[in-house]
Amino acid sequence: MAPEEAVELVVVFSFHAQGEPRVNELWMTRTKKLKQVWTKLRFRSSCEKSSDNTGAEQSASDALQEAKSGVSGNNEDESQWQSTDVEMDKSVEAKDSLSFRPAPKDQFQEELIIRPLHSGDIYASFQFRTIWDTDFLQEGNKVSHYRLFPKSLGQVLSKFSVRELHISFTQGFWRTMQWGQPFIPSPPGAELWVWFQDTVADVDENWKELTNVLSGIFCASLNFIDTTNTVQPSASFKPLGLGNGLATLMKSEKLFHSSFHSQAVHIRPVCQDVQCAKPAWELRQTLNVVFDLYTSGQSKKEWSLFKMFSRTLTEACPLASSSKVYVDITDNPEGELFELSPATPVLSQAVVLGDRRTYSVYDLTKADTFGQLRSLNLLLRWKGENGDMLRPLLHAERYVAGFGLQTGEIHTLVYNNHPFRAFPVLLLESVPWYLRLYIHTLKVTSKSRDNKPSYIHYQPSKDRQRPHLLEMLIQLPPHSVTEVTVQFERALLKWTEYPPDPNHGFYVGSSVISALVPSMVAMDTNFTQEHPLFSSFFPVKEESNFFMRVYTEPLLVNLPTPDFSMPYNVICLTCTVVAVGYGSFYNLLTRTFQVDEPSLPLAKRLANLIRRVRGVPLLT
């Protein structure tokens, strides 16, 4: 029997105990005893293990039996009391056993990675990870109690049968050649990836409803995103909002004064253990920011947490099982490039994107990290000059060529900087319908030779319904540049389809390149909880390759734009002509005409003037 039933019994007894004084006395005695039982049940339920459901139920039954026997022993005349025995049938027992079912286990982790860039800028990456050992999509498993996992997102996963969801909002462009590769890449603007369960009958309708719901949750116009393949405000999703732990650094005005910022929410199923017998759900919220000298207005190459975020760290999140700050010191082994204070003896190594990196670790769950001032303000002071430009193993560029407003050509350049390894890449192009692709002009070249793709999938567009979808599997030779070109024709839009300031142009989304890139060092395939969060987002199955996703720049394309001032000019001219013509016609119709008599000679006019003075009749 659940502890809540003791309260229900008290209510029942109080309802039947109105009337006789003797009955009231018996009711008071039984109520007092039941309160003692309720205290015992609450104490036992808080001390016993949650997995021992049978023992908890037996303890509750024994306690209630003890209460009944105690009350009957102390009151001999209780036989006159006409009470109804409460018996538990099998259905009630099953319900009570469910009430004692242990709640799904969940945990929350947070970390901040600070990486000094070769350009003198600072890259800060926040990651907040929530793991919940439950399965929303299991039949008959209805989740109604949420602790750390956001309830709004959990209901979305259950209602729309979402298997995996990735959504990002990005302002600015990531400069790969100057900053290297980000931990979790994202394209400029908004991006939404969704995997549905096989049980979904109508994917298009499900997608439409899901985007409308997500638009309300994240305050974004996601419902205007067209689906290309049917095969924030994220701070509210954190357990304690922006008031504890690393979230205290997320002050809006400072983040949006940066040259690049990207926030994303990733939800996916993961394994609870090594055997992967039971699934769990992972919610990963990320925020990536790049602070540069010019935007921040600093004259010296000196960074600190207070200068970047206008505050320091004073404590870890109380609900976080892990709260750490990592500072990348791989390029600064002897301290010749920059100076980091306060120093820490704790170091950690991790293989990130095929490169072994070394980090200084600050554990916020330990009191020694904050020192005597109970505050952590990391200070990074540069000593040397800017480093050389990086050469990532895989990166891409894209631009539009041609002249005029009728036709054009899209060029996509994919760089493989590996000295001796060739590997395939999957190129995904999503082009709006108003750029009509000439697919017969598609050409792929590597080292001035034709490079025939191993696989091509093309889905033509439908005007005002869906965009073009082009997927290709291309083999990249070692140390090469592969160019993909395709011609297009600009379509004429209706005058109501042009956005404000149409002469600025129309943005075309980034291309997506996915590949298993050969690693320069041996990858660690045994991921455990001891590894940093940023090194485990894309788990690897072999030691020689790692997964990478690259986004190109968005395109800005000009379309034939009508002269939107011409209707205004026509209206003004027409109104002027109508006003002049109608005014003249109205004047002719409404004016009163009088006969103009001939004027008298000068002699008569002088005579009439004299006659008027004398008061005699005038001459005619």
Question: What does this protein look like?
Answer:
With 620 residues, the protein is an alpha+beta fold. The protein folds into four domains: 3-99, no CATH class; 106-382, no CATH class; 394-557, Immunoglobulin-like, CATH 2.60.40; 566-620, no CATH class. It is 25% helix and 30% strand. The protein contains twelve helices and 24 strands. The strands form five sheets. A nine-stranded mixed sheet has the order 4-3-5-6-2-1-8-11-10. A five-stranded antiparallel sheet has the order 13-14-20-16-17, with no helix packed on it. The protein has a five-stranded antiparallel sheet with strand order 18-19-15-22-23, with no helix packed on it. A hairpin with a 5-residue loop joins strand 13 (394-401) and strand 14. Helix 1 runs antiparallel to helix 2 and helix 2 packs antiparallel against helix 3. The chain is elongated. It starts with a helix and ends in a 6-residue tail after the last helix. The relative contact order is 0.09. Pfam families: Gpi16. Residues 48-87 are annotated as: Disordered.
